[in-house]
């Protein structure tokens, strides 16, 4: 039986970006003297795999180590790494290589949606173009639509146990609770509040539903500060739906409310490589 063909860097890059998984792209941008590969050579690096090559040897191992250190620290963005083949790299080529490291920490956010009803379907469709990982839960058998199969960055999870489903979420997830059952909604909000490490929690429903939930959740031991972190009804922070209660309108308002909560860590006034470093390199 033939072994599977190793993935080229562009195939690996497409797969990892589609799945929203952390990875780094290393590109040789300049070289001088005798070097293993030419400018334009690329390699994709993850926590536990490497696709393609920059030429091998100690130089390549150092590139991999540099990329994995950044991935482990959760860094993102670009950096320029310099390698003297014979100095830093301990190789006898005697050349000099600059490598551009582009680190992608994975999906910009994790959105956990509980409920595969009409609003849940619209939420997942609206989230599809965004660089978010979506974890879609429902306690019922056969609740997920056929179109959800093999969607990038989407995982459908049969979740009959609310406590276990919440326990499996990554820290810092944004959660939206909109199941078919009010009792299940309350169990989920209770479990999410007990976690204490969710980025945000939204609950579908009316003000009267939240008043009832708030009373029960207070009795369960949640204080006013914790309860104030729950948005209910969802979508009202952005002006609501204007009276339109169709699933699409509710989902649209909920997503508009969520977008500024996800935000971005990128500085608006400086993106990419440090201009001062580029001036030094090319000056």
Automatic annotation (TrEMBL):
<dbReference type="Pfam" id="PF13478">
    <property type="entry name" value="XdhC_C"/>
</dbReference>
<dbReference type="InterPro" id="IPR027051">
    <property type="entry name" value="XdhC_Rossmann_dom"/>
</dbReference>
<dbReference type="InterPro" id="IPR014308">
    <property type="entry name" value="Xanthine_DH_XdhC"/>
</dbReference>
<feature type="domain" description="XdhC- CoxI">
    <location>
        <begin position="17"/>
        <end position="77"/>
    </location>
</feature>
<feature type="domain" description="XdhC Rossmann">
    <location>
        <begin position="111"/>
        <end position="258"/>
    </location>
</feature>
<dbReference type="InterPro" id="IPR029752">
    <property type="entry name" value="D-isomer_DH_CS1"/>
</dbReference>
<dbReference type="InterPro" id="IPR052698">
    <property type="entry name" value="MoCofactor_Util/Proc"/>
</dbReference>
<dbReference type="InterPro" id="IPR036291">
    <property type="entry name" value="NAD(P)-bd_dom_sf"/>
</dbReference>
<dbReference type="Pfam" id="PF02625">
    <property type="entry name" value="XdhC_CoxI"/>
</dbReference>
<protein>
    <submittedName>
        <fullName>Xanthine dehydrogenase accessory protein XdhC</fullName>
    </submittedName>
</protein>
<dbReference type="InterPro" id="IPR003777">
    <property type="entry name" value="XdhC_CoxI"/>
</dbReference>
């Amino acid at each position: 039986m033939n072994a599977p063909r190793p993935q080229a860097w562009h195939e690996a890059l497409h797969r990892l970006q589609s799945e929203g998984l952390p990875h780094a792209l290393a590109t040789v941008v300049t070289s001088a003297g005798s070097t293993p590969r030419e400018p334009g050579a690329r390699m994709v690096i993850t926590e536990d795999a490497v696709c393609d090559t920059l030429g091998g040897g100690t130089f390549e191992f150092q590139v991999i180590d540099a990329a994995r250190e950044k991935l482990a620290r959760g860094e993102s963005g670009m950096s320029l790494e310099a390698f003297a083949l014979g100095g830093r790299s301990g190789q006898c080529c005697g050349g000099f290589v600059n490598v551009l490291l582009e680190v992608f920490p994975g999906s910009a956010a994790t959105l956990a949606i509980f409920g595969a009803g009409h609003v849940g379907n619209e939420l997942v469709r609206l989230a599809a173009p965004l660089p978010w990982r979506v974890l879609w839960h429902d306690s019922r058998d056969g609740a997920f639509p056929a179109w959800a199969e093999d969607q990038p960055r989407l995982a459908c999870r049969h979740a009959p146990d609310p406590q276990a489903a919440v326990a499996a979420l990554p820290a810092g997830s944004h959660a939206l609770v909109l199941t078919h059952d009010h009792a299940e909604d309350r169990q989920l909000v209770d479990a999410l509040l007990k976690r204490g490490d969710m980025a945000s929690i939204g609950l579908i429903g009316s003000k009267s539903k939240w008043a009832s939930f708030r009373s029960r959740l207070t009795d369960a031991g949640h204080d006013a500060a914790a309860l104030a972190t729950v948005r209910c009804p969802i979508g009202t922070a952005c002006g609501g739906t204007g009276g339109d209660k169709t699933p699409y309108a509710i989902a649209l308002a909920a997503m508009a409310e969520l977008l500024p909560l996800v935000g971005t860590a990128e500085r608006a006034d400086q993106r990419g490589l440090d201009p001062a470093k580029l001036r030094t390199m090319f000056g």
